[in-house]
Amino acid sequence: MTLSVKDISLRFGGVSALTNVSFDVQEGQVTGLIGPNGAGKTSLFNVVSGIYTPTSGQVFYNDHEISKLRLDQINRLGVARTFQNIMVFPELSLVENVMIGRQSRTKAGALSSIFRTRKERNERSEAERRSIELLSYVGLDKKKDELAKNLPYGEQRQLDIARALATDPKILLLDEPAAGLNLQERVSLKALIKKLNAMDYTIVLIEHDVKLVMDLCSRIVVLEYGNKISEGDPQQVQSDPKVIAAYLGSGGE
Ligand SMILES: Nc1ncnc2c1ncn2[C@@H]1O[C@H](COP(=O)(O)OP(=O)(O)OP(=O)(O)O)[C@@H](O)[C@H]1O
Question: Using a 6 Å cutoff on CB, does residue 43 contact ligand 1?
Answer without folding.
Answer: yes
